[in-house]
Amino acid sequence: GNSVTQMEGPVTLSEEAFLTINCTYTATGYPSLFWYVQYPGEGLQLLLKATKADDKGSNKGFEATYRKETTSFHLEKGSVQVSDSAVYFCALTGGYQKVTFGIGTKLQVIP
Amino acid sequence: DTGVSQNPRHKITKRGQNVTFRCDPISEHNRLYWYRQTLGQGPEFLTYFQNEAQLEKSRLLSDRFSAERPKGSFSTLEIQRTEQGDSAMYLCASSFVGGGGDIQYFGAGTRLSVL
Q1: Of A72, B6, B26, B66, which has the highest C-beta tally within 10 A?
Q2: pLDDT in tens, A34-61
Q3: What is the Cα–Cα distance from B3 to B27, expressed in whole angstroms?
Q4: A97 interaction partners in chain B (CB closer than 8 Å)
């Protein structure tokens, strides 16, 4: 079956630091890949997506590239802000199907 | 469009009681999903509907759980004879199949605490 493995947190960074959250996946076929973000007290929000190999998803300064050869979809941001503090979930779907999520990585950005 | 709406936001109940949650999807979304999220974990799939038909149920969905989407719009998730292990955040998501995308939009969830 499908599965997603992401680095466990918490990750604590100073403001303006570089962020990487690693994510690898196991899936049959050609899944779509996602990063969702969950701010405290709020629901899951789609941060970015990529639907095929070598696609780069980007939003709000965050980026992730669909790497089929390494089955990875690492999340990066060049300069984090305090407002980026949240839990980040890597996820995949096989197309019009249920989403399989990773465990989530809590990010805390300190001023 | 106000997004996916879930009610109530919080529910506290005693073990053995029945509870029901409601989800209102984004208008005209034909797929509706239920997930469960426990503390420190990612959401896990429970079941989903296309219009009013329930197409898949996870093995996590025991006989005490039942979900309906009677008119293909809102959905309810009922848990009978609640147990402490049912304490979790229950998330609803909706999507539109046929538009070329597969993005699920999530509600804020219903947090259930079973005492």
Answers
A1: B6
A2: 999 999 888 899 999 999 999 999 999 9
A3: 8
A4: 102
